[in-house]
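Pasting as-is:
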Amino acid sequence: MSPTLVAIGNPLLDMQVTGGEALLAKYNLKANDAVLAEGNQSEIYADIQKNHEVTYVAGGAGQNAARAAQYVMPAGSTAYLGAVGTDDLAKQLTAANDKEGLISAYQVVPDLPTGACAVVITGHDRSLCTTLGAAEAFKPAHLETPAVKALIDGAKFFYLGGFFLTHGVESAKIVAQHAVDNRKIFAMNLSAPFIPQFFKAQVDEILPFVDILIGNESEAEAYAASHEWNTKDIAEIAIKLAASPKLASRPRIVIITQGPSSTIVASSTVSADSPTTKVYPVTLLDSSAIVDTNAAGDAFAGGFIGAFAQGKSVDQSIETGHRLAKMCIGQVGAQWKFPKVDLFA
């Protein structure tokens, strides 16, 4: 039986450290931000391995979301596409996916290392600094291999991590076009403010294919700024994104999370004369129980997509996403509780 959901992104191994205020200053990083390593930031990986206690966790935003979706779906319901090396990091990622019932459909790049992400925790905040390695060597030809083509042909839902657009827009567009041509659901996450800010053309090239767009308030504001919308009103931005040109006839759903405050949902069924959104409150986890917020957004996205792909309503799917994000911030990095908790109960 083919997986229901195929996700695509940059497979990374998270290298997580706590108490990282000095690292933020040393490498010019910001709390609650995500960047691709530049200049001396490439030295952070050796630094934290040598001078800090490191927790290694399977990562990469798209892969986190795929694992999260799989958590709320029957085993084998989700497959993940990305590129890795032949090193121990790749083996750790595959083992983590196998343990959780996620199908790894990696392109293997022999001459490059598997990508890594330095996750610097300060208080409840996290800063992400990524070196893509093999991940950015993903080739469209991988989509045409018999095993991967079978996964794509059999799937009904697709999920794209926005970080993939820094290098893989051609591959993303192939999958997106397949979804449109075959009346399947294509979802995308904006992933980080720098994606709509510095990769505006790539985002705009894919957006017409997108049925479900997910992001947080900072990413929504970055998109609005890059398009000179002259507003920071999240509801207004959500409505404008929902109303952006679209290829498939089904309405677009736009979901903007706002951390612990609330989640805003807009749909292209809303007319310009009656711009309204629906606001979903977030049930808070006691501050003393929060371990870190790394991958909370990915957990929400995966929880939502995993529920929606099983026929749950938008309301039910939002609640599932909230519950999985709440679970995630009580763990170290992108991890969930096992044995599984029934989030639909």
